Amino acid sequence: MQESENDILKRVRKIEIKTRGLSNEIFAGKYHTAFRGRGMSFSEVREYRAGDDVRDIDWNVTARSTKPHIKIYEEERELTMMLLIDVSGSRMFGTGERLKKNVVTEIAAVLAFSAAQNNDKVGCIFFSDRVEKFIPPKKGRSHILMIIRELVKFRPESQGTAIAEAVRYLTNVNKKHCTAFILSDFIDSARDRNALDDALKIAGGKHDIVGIRIWDEREAEMPDVGIIELQDAETGEKQWVDTSSARVREYYAESWRRRDEAIRETLRRNRIDTAMVSTEGDYVVELIKLFKQR
């Protein structure tokens, strides 16, 4: 059933009350500490000196000169946060009280209000296996409420996922440095890890990219509930599965482990700090851990 405009506004207000409080009390200071000094524009390179931040090493110049060089930045007056939000079919999955979509919406709101507390701009890219919607970065509470409202009511044209498309779009549309959060379950129906690798490598040279993985415990472990019909939320494919079979359940768990490790390796290889948030877990704890590790 499609929600009425009044229902949508009530949900937006409820999300604002919860997440704005968290942002004011917990995240604004931690966000500022974790991402301050990242709002920089490239100025020049110089040789590495003892004490320099190794994260600023320019590997291309280093390779050409055979001596370590680092990038020098000039501080910008304001930061820009971009939220890359997965709106594919799998966001509607959840076996507890909350869907992935609900968790993503709340985390996006918390991050946006935290940025607003620091007077930063916030923009959004909604993506499936294509870029579904682009909201240019702006400041202000009304802008953030508009983003939340769009998240609540948005219906994508496609159900698939291709994170590389959103990352490439970020690189093309944002010429200046920004902090970009990818909010997704990282279940990429395109299955093209090389494309994602390439996109992250290019975007990571310009932007500060952070991953927030949303997952549900039933994706990692299948319960014994007899014969059931499962449907892929992104492809629509259906299949009958005998969950009473220990062999089937182990195959399911092993498939998750392989996929999970592939995702972790892609993010590690591209030096992307990541939080992993369960639909049944406490995203506050995971976000604080993420901010502390930076």
What's this, in brief?
The chain has helices at residues 5-35, 59-65, 100-117, 141-153, 163-173, 193-204, 217-220, 246-269, 283-292, and strands at residues 40-47, 69-75, 80-86, 121-127, 131-138, 179-184, 208-215, 227-231, 238-242, 273-278.
Q: Specify Rg, calculated over alpha carbons.
A: 20 Å
Major sheet details:
6 strands, mixed
Order of helices and strands: HEHEEHEEHHEHEHEEHEH
Specify the overall morphology. Answer: globular
Kindly report the spatial arrangement of strands forming the biggest sheet: 5-4-3-6-7-10
Helix content: 40-55%
Helix-and-strand structural type: alpha/beta
Mean pLDDT over the residues = 85
Tell me the total number of β-strands: 10
Number of helices: 9
Which residues form runs of ≥5 with pLDDT under 50? none
What does this structure look like?
The chain is an alpha/beta fold. Helices cover 44% and strands 23% of the residues. The protein contains nine helices and ten strands. The protein has a six-stranded mixed beta sheet, with helices on both faces. A two-stranded antiparallel sheet has the order 1-2. Strands 8-9 form a two-stranded antiparallel sheet. The radius of gyration is 20 Å and the shape is globular. 34% of the residues are buried. The mean pLDDT is 85.
